[in-house]
Amino acid sequence: MNKHELAEELRRKQLSKAEEAVREFNKNSRRQMTIPQFRNAVTSCSDEEIILSYITCSSCGALILSYDVDVDALARSSNSADEWLDKTYKAALKHRGTHVKL
Ligand SMILES: [Zn+2]
What we know:
This protein is mainly alpha-helical. The chain has one domain.
């Protein structure tokens, strides 16, 4: 896959579980979102924005992979978004290992 194909597949995945995603978002946020708002946000974000949302560390905000090099290489060696997500997940675990333990 190239990055554009990857981004398209990630969008499709998000849209297919829109109800669940909105329910989760509303549970954890004071701002409430509707399903049409969620669908609109997913379809209007750029390829880069949607991919970055998957490779940004949720605890420190750093990028787990470099967008230009790693994302591209992992996308090219993957046949599906699920395969790419699996590789990204492993990189995320490795990244979390670098966090200073308190
Ligand atoms: Zn981090």
